[in-house]
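Mods, move this if it's the wrong board.
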Amino acid sequence: MIEFLKEKQYIIQRVLRDETTGCWNWKQSTSRTSMGYGQAHMWGKTMNCHRLAYILWKGWPKEGNVVRHLCNNPKCCNPAHLEEGTQIDNILDCMMADRHTKGERNGRSKITERQAVEIAFKYYVEDKGMTEIGREYGLTRVAVRYIINGKHWSFATGIIPNENSSN
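Not the wrong board. Structure tokens:
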């Protein structure tokens, strides 16, 4: 296996080692579009630094696989904290660590978690119609239907989606 000594030194010089967690936190640029992952320029292209670190210390991941963080820290590029897996594995990791952009953390969200609960309450308890509720919150009737059927915001409302529902 190729040693990549120069390339490894490139990574090591650009990290700050966290003695508590063991993470090698990337000190250089991070991507605004990829949730704070460190960006490194190597071999004529820009790539996520954790992927580059994985390649340099562990080898190329299988085609179609991704490099996952065992530490749930997007800036970390410590090879001991990285593991190869599928995108589904990666999404499940993200969900288990509560790092996915659900609810208010999603930049496209028009309501808060509290408002989602209020919407369900107004529909089921106060017997208000979907159109009326939608007007009150600036939502479409369909958006309200998705909330009250548990397709959206179920983590906040506690409504379990009906799999047979056409939503």
